[in-house]
Amino acid sequence: MNSTSTPKAPAPDIAGQILFAMRNMGVAPIPRNYNLFYEAYIGSNPALTRELAALGSRATQEEMDELGSRYFDHNHGQLIEAVHTKLHSELDALLLVLRHEQTCLENYNRILDETRAGITDKNLNSAHLLRTAISLLADATGNKITQNESTSKDFDRHAEEMQQVRLELDEYKRIANTDSLTRLANRRAFDDRLASIYDTNIGLHFSALVLLDVDNFKRINDTFGHPVGDKILATVASVIRANVRKDGFVARSGGEEFAIILEGNSQEEIHVVCERIRMSLEKTPFRNSKSGTDYGQVTISIGYSLASQAQNPGELYACADTALYQAKETGRNRTVFFEDGMQKNYANKSWLIYKK
After folding, report:
1. Is 26 left (phi over 0), alpha (psi -120 to 50) or beta?
2. Domain count, the chain
3. Which domain holds residue 128?
4. Known catalytic residue: 256?
5. Catalytically annotated residue among 39, 90, 256, 257
6. pLDDT, tens digit, 9 for 90 and up, residues 305-349
7. Is-contact 205 306, C-beta < 8 A?
């Protein structure tokens, strides 16, 4: 265990490394390109990684967009950029309204100053001058009131449009952080949530990372085909989600691997959750209701670690992955807790397309 006084090792700067890779491949640092490089970085799609690397050091934007259209159901990066453009447009329109209001206010203040300056002690008795001054002030004030009403309406209209744009942007971000097959959070959302555990030292003893991996999944795909494998993954995801309380974070972290981040639980409680998931899946029938084909029993291996057993997200992942490896090596379909003395499994994966 690490004491809270021990300095935490810095977490890897994923965004910085991705941007470095983009810069060295001559790719524009825009959101939709970043999404492609991010997927390549985490290794979630080996085919995408290979194709992106094959583009060489000077990939065109057309080539990048073509990759995005083939590997993503929707090009979320382009959608988010479009919404950002709309938001900026509304902000510009709002600024014009405010500048116009400022000009009107300055003109009104100028009229007040000029009228005040034109009225002196000598001509206070001039009825004509006073009537003229009052008429000018009345006209200016009436115009200012009308302008205020118009500005208020314009402001409200643009505010409503901006709120709608924000809602669209939030929805696109939600979609971009959701795995299309399982409807769980995807690897991008998982990385962000995992990093947030170490924002403070509070609650580290009651936070945990759980990694789950479907046993012998390659055999399932080879025997029944990828469409069946996808349906099985979707069912596994439903079983996991159904056995984790609503405030638990559940993600598909890649391939047939899932991840859960639990907070506010003791080790014993976390173990109970893991076993509940494992046994529920063990009892779940997997068969085709139309053809009657029985795909057999599907099981899952689980490894978990407490956040207090690591100093940063990368180390926590290594601890949980080590426990998962132990579960696989000792027979599968079991839950293993990471214990001090286990050799941490720092996977030697070539995630970056372009390394320093």
Report:
1. left
2. 2
3. 77-176
4. yes
5. 256
6. 999 999 888 899 999 999 999 999 999 999 999 998 887 765 544
7. yes
